[in-house]
# Entry
Amino acid sequence: MKQTFLLFAIMFTACHTTEKNNSISSISNKDVQTAIGRIMQAQPAADTELVSKGVEQTAQFWEAEDGTPAEFIDFCTENYVADLAGREILFRKIQTDLEILMGNYNKMSVALKMPIHVTGSDITPIDEAFGAYEPSAHFAEDMFANKIAFIVKLNFPFYNLQEKNEHGKTWNRQEWAYARLGDVFISRVPAEITQEIASVLTDADNYISNYNIVMDKLRTENGEQLFPDGMKLIAHWGLRDELKSDYADKTRGTEKQEMIYCVMKHIVNQTIPEQVINNGSYEWQPVSNRIFKNGQEEKIRQEPGTRYQKLLNQFHAQRKADKYNPAYNTYILRAFDQQMEVSYDEIEQLFTQLLSSPQVAETAAMIRERLGRELRPYDIWYDGFKTRSNIPEEQLSVQTRKLYPDTEAFAAALPGILQKMGFSKEKAAFICNHVAVDASRGAGHAWGALMRDDKARLRTRVNADGMDYKGYNIAVHEFGHNVEQTISLHDVDNYIMCGIPNTGFTEALAFVFQKRDLELLGYNDNDPEKSKMTNLDIFWGCYEIMGVSLVDMRTWKWLYENPQATVTDLKQAVIRNAQEIWNIYYAPILGEKDSPILAIYSHMIDYPLYLPNYPYGHLIEFQLEKQFAGKNIGEEIQRIYPAGRLTPDYWMLQATGQTVSVEPMLEAVSRK
# Structure
């Protein structure tokens, strides 16, 4: 998972310290027209439409504390730059200074969060306090106070998503860069609210990062231990990956999967004994939900709604920022129109189109035949289309532990991985010199740099005996993010264009890397059915995560419709949403009406509305894989990813010749 988008979201949100109704400007329409007239009189060659847009947006955020109406008019007249050469100079200076500020804020944030993200000594309260602190919280507040934000708004106005999609087809690279600079200051959120958002996000992330299940303490109703000593898995990622690996266990794999499914339902329903969370002191029988310590049964204490309290805290914090975001006045709009630059309705339509397609039932029938049994709800994680499903995970872990006993060994191997992907020796060395590898407390993530003399961070779990296969698989995924982060920072033409349209595009490249993890270990797959199996694997992955994403999306819509909801109300709503979506799109295929399993994903708790990026990324991944077929992948990545932050459809048109769509995937899966 990529994390730099969080800092971008915070830093691209302007703030001030006095909480007030930001819709009230001290500037009248008459003042606006006077300022426009003065500029046109002084610079008659100026573009009237552009001048009007810049002045109107500047006025929208100009408050009494910023100056009198007369001072506003003077400011606009003195600071508007109509001369093309002068505007270019202004742009270059602003983006240079933004790189200095954003890059160093990001670097500080990474360093302050190091104790809670990376393994080491026990986390202390002061670590959590510094980790929750956001160095950039006052960034835009300062920019408005010293009038830099107003200079940007005046000369480089903001274009909403509809305008970008309309005008983007004719914009050149410089015009795109100017438009992206206009995205920087589009609201004035109080600094204390910005800091609260960062704090509750860090709190939720810390909760999830330490939500582990001690698997060797799970017991069947007969008291049997199914999982090996020392196995400790984070929810949901570790539980899901273990469930996937159990398809290769022909002896007791199904029994293990049923137990994991039971554990997941307890987490969602909050019936899990609080005593077993990240604690190996108790033996737990999930089916009957009984716990034992030193052979004696003890009374369980159910987790007291903590999971949903963390989500509710996120909602309340984000809602406080709504009235200070005139362009995107709900977190839903900020997550979709602003960050993804794809509307909620468009995403929902894409997802439901695939979920309701006949190809789902066709693929399910194939899985049922391959498993030789009726499908169960956890078969949304069926992993049998991958080669590694036929290789015992422990066999793979023996190899990865030997190759990568520590993070240093994995870091040393990264250039070779890139060369196997088709990168030149020189380019591989350049990228890897800009990536640092850390041992993660959580499941793993990637955190990109925001200035060119800093490094991206790759985090994955490394046990005392080395990196097991799960850690390796995650590391390869995160390295895909790092490759994107480095190329789209260093190879883009303008710093303000660095990055990708949305996180789905970096997830797509991470998926491309992750899918080749066995090839990178030396396992060659010459199966003529490989292409077909790859298509089915991506399709089934979309089927799974799209339902999960819809739960996340509809939960936030419900929260805005019910802003006074209690934790109990929210828990019931999440479970109800999960069950309703399950009953429509999954129960007819996988059985068991009213399963809540779609609500298990941890991202819904610690990074709300991030989940839709995953299936959107899968759609992009599929189209990229078609583009990569028969070509040098490394060269194609270097051609595609320097495009930077265009809107999604324009980026995809340059990359593959098509916009983002479900249709190519459905067509490929139909050719069985």
In short: Confidence is low (pLDDT under 50) at residues 3-23. The beta strands are 212-214, 232-234, 283-285, 290-293, 296-298, 435-439, 444-447, 456-460. The first strand starts at residue 212 and ends at 214.
